[in-house]
């Protein structure tokens, strides 16, 4: 199918300092009818300039780049009033960097070693309004959050999306990786009541899964400390 006949063409900007990698990724993406690579950047500063000039739907952003590191470019771009969805595409990333990237506004984290179909699925998921974290990274995030949740501080209490005090407490336990049974025990509630609270939270913040909710809470700095 020709790109011109596609229902929705996803315009993609690639930011990576390795020319061979950019060329290969461009060919891979443009073999898919709905993807159109509209530009490339070789460093973080150029990525910011190109993203502002071209307004892509998706920016695939490497972390380790010269001049302006990927995380700095991410933070700079997410202060703009832009609809560009930024996906970190990197060779390696620490658990703390995953959390920092999500807090800074990244919608996805994909390792360069990922299978092609996971990369494509990740882009499509982010375009559908979901967060995407490579399957192997999900458990790492949960474990990292469990280890740091006790010392974490919620940076923004004003913007709580209409959540009640109890819903905020439950949100904190979701981020820390609690099961419904563990949440019920912690707050002396029935599991049905916990499910009811979660349904309300999903509706208020506009997500459809526990993982999306946890990532949303990280991104918006909503998570309360739990133990």
TrEMBL record:
Domain (HTH luxR-type) ranges: 156-221
Domain Response regulatory: 11-127
GO molecular function: DNA binding
The organism's place on the tree of life at top rank: Bacteria
GO biological process, one term: regulation of DNA-templated transcription
This protein's UniProt keywords: DNA-binding, Phosphoprotein, Transcription, Transcription regulation
Pfam families per the UniProt record, alphabetical: GerE, Response_reg
UniProt modified residues of type 4-aspartylphosphate: 62
Protein name (record): Two component transcriptional regulator, LuxR family
